[in-house]
Design brief:
Length: about 100
């Protein structure tokens, strides 16, 4: 019984989604282009644009990848799809790490 529970727990842990683990310092270097709309400090400078400062890292990764893959089509997609298309998956993870750690 104990062995079965251990195997079940291990299988559950290994099946959980992988959390993003980007490099915030590298993300800071890529974030300059984001500042035009989302502010140098991650606080949006244009009404209706989202603040990125302190946003959930995995949410940012998923959102940017959805824009990149043209799966996110509402709102600001016309602006964000070309921006995200220029980013590698590593760039996306780094940007998400940078903005998520801002306080």
């Amino acid at each position: 019984m104990k062995k079965a529970m251990t195997l079940t727990l291990a299988a559950t842990l290994f099946s959980l989604p992988v959390m993003a683990a980007g490099d915030a310092a590298a993300g800071k270097g890529k974030a300059a282009i984001c500042a035009a709309c989302h502010g140098a400090d991650g606080q949006a400078v244009i009404p209706g644009y989202p603040n990125l400062k302190g946003q959930n890292e995995l949410y940012l990764v998923n959102a940017l990848k959805a824009y990149k893959n043209k799966e996110r089509t509402g709102g600001n997609a016309m602006l964000m799809q070309p921006q995200a298309a220029m980013l590698s998956d590593t760039d996306i993870e780094n940007l998400a790490a940078y903005f998520s750690q801002m306080q």
